[in-house]
Amino acid sequence: MSPNIRMMSVEEIKAYMDGHGPEKYTLLDVRQPAEYERGHLPGARLVPLSELPDRMGEVPTDKPVIAYCASGGRSMAASSLLEGRGYGDVSNMVGGFSAWEGSAAFGPMQLGMHGFTGRETPREVVRKAFAMECRLQEFYVLRADLAETEERIELFMELAGYEDRHKDVLHTLYGRLTGELPDYETFEAEILDGADGMVEGGIDIQTFLDKHAEAFDGDLGILQFASMVEAQAMDYYLRWAAQAEQGETRETLELLAREEKAHLKVLARHMDELSE
Q: Looking at the 3D structure of the chain, how many domains does it have?
């Protein structure tokens, strides 16, 4: 988590709103429209997480932004995206709308980039990204095994298939960076042999879900979790693309970021269907 993003409790948000006119800040709701219609904070502007990359121009840069979602996870991903695009005063509401309504508050959902220091070489970036794509794919396959409907099985297997595409792209990029393309199976086995349980965005999947089990219950909760991860991955690829010295590397990372954005839209559509 960036030190530039403030984590604010519901009580702190209420006090801030009481002390500032609504024109002094932007209250950003990044949930889906159906969630917003069921209830939202006074004066909140709805920009779903899946649409934020394309609608960032609707969020003023000259005043503080306070982001929230249902429980604080998707809004943390949104906060990171905003901060990465140059927004200087961004806060995330801990516990989200659930805490606002008086439900049990959750701790700060720090997606973090604890797997990344910012000092990695390009080849280290690719290796870590490849490992995380593998872990996320395993997670989706597991969710497909646990799904109770054919539609959910197909969805999670579709998401797992996306990761194959990203792994292929990263494998090819690694060969370009090193000047020699290793055998795919050998490359995958070597990386996974030393990898932990992190997925895209630097999250340890099982630790995170165990800690926030109540927030991500059922298929809808899993889709919300997946949205957090995909948004964090998009942010990661965009940040590294901006630092890339080689044009081909930058273009590849930008391609991966665009595909993560497309995945967010798929997840948003399914969340809408479950919310109807």
A: 2
Q: Are 131 and 202 in the same domain?
A: yes
pLDDT at 199: 60
In the chain, the N- to C-terminal Cα span, in Å, equals 33
Closest to 129 measured CA to CA, from 202, 41, 211:
202
pLDDT of residue 168: 94
Inter-residue contact 228 to 268 (CB < 8 Å): no
Catalogue the active-site residues. 69
pLDDT band of 113, cuts 50, 70, 90: very low
- What pLDDT is attached to residue 212? 67
| 13 and 93 Cβ atoms separated by less than 8 Å | yes
Report the CATH number that the domain containing residue 39 is assigned in CATH: 3.40.250.10
**Rounded distance between C-alpha atoms, residue 98 and residue 116, angstroms:** 31
Q: Is the CB of residue 80 less than 8 Å from the CB of residue 116? A: no
